[in-house]
Amino acid sequence: MKILSIAGTRPNFMKLGALIDEIKKHDVEHVLVHTGQHYDKKMSKLFFDDLGLPEPDINLGVGSGSNEEQTKKIMEKIEDVLVREKPDLVIVVGDVNSTMAGALVAKKLGIKVAHVEAGLRSFDLTMPEETNRIETDKVSDFLFTTEESGNKNLINEGVDKEKIFFVGNVMIDTLLKHKEKAEKSDILEKLNLEKGNYCALTLHRPSNVDIKECFENILSILDKVQDKIKIIFPVHPRTRKNIEKFSLDNKIKNMENLMLIDPMRYLDFLFLMSNAKLVLTDSGGIQEETTVLGVPCITLRKNTERPVTVEQGTNLLVSTDRDKVIEKSLEIINSESKINNKIPDLWDGGAAERIMEILLERFKK
Ligand code: UD1
Q: How many beta carbons lie within 10 A of that of residue 322, not counting itself?
């Protein structure tokens, strides 16, 4: 059996980490393709190092561009690779442009497609990821879901039940595998932080950082929160670019307790999150990671494609309403009690193993 897996962006690497470790245990030929959607050392190479991922066999080097340009470039370049490599199966993960581009081309060439993290829906088509999710699921032969909502969404869309496999969460496989190693991180000393006495922040959604007024609104929230607690903010390249574009540097400099740093590597960020009093984010994956870590998370979005993190986990979906976010943040900062969270079903470190079991069974000669 020959599997070709496609990765493009930072969260893809965490998901593939667990899968590749599992693939290696079997008599399976594996080709890893990096589309180059994320290319900075801090967004890519350092993650490969921390996760012990093999060097990509092929790097398409597509780089940045509009959603359409990027998708088009990946589609063009991946076609040659698929024609040449002739895999039995293409694995794509998550919801980024690389995911959809890879899945569509594989399908057109008659190659079977497995989508890991299928079925998630924000029901918000203004997010580029929502189109990526829907289109990828439409062409996939194996839809591996992380939570019950994913199964329900796919069935509602008329997907054949036989193609849906509820296997759990490979990103959590990776987290559980690396948690102990992350405890050796010296990032808290380096940043002069005290366990449980800081807030970690990430921000990169176009809806939050690509529009000046929206970004300014979030900064005015942060201004209030940093009055009460130190905020550590590893800045995504998209966000960094917009801070410059909108001339927000001065506003930020005036907030003494808001600490901007470069994107962090995986193990350091895992340790930073684990020990935070509160996480503020607009990321998808971080909602899941904080749920498993038992750390309160405020999501700066109107919707989530991961409802189980709200129903069972530590996630509060608060939107970017200034008063609401400030109120909720202060509530958490001032509270002494430990949060009551449940670990969602099958988020137990065994998702990659379940996926491979299913695939090996299906591809048995
Ligand atoms: C992408 C995904 C998003 C995911 C995120 C994780 C899509 C539509 N979006 O968003 O779902 O949550 O990755 O980080 O696929 N840049 C660099 N260096 C890099 C990568 C990006 O400087 O290594 C800059 C470029 O200016 C680029 C911008 O960041 O234009 C945005 O990168 P892009 O990959 O287009 O989208 P993300 O915002 O990272």
A: 13
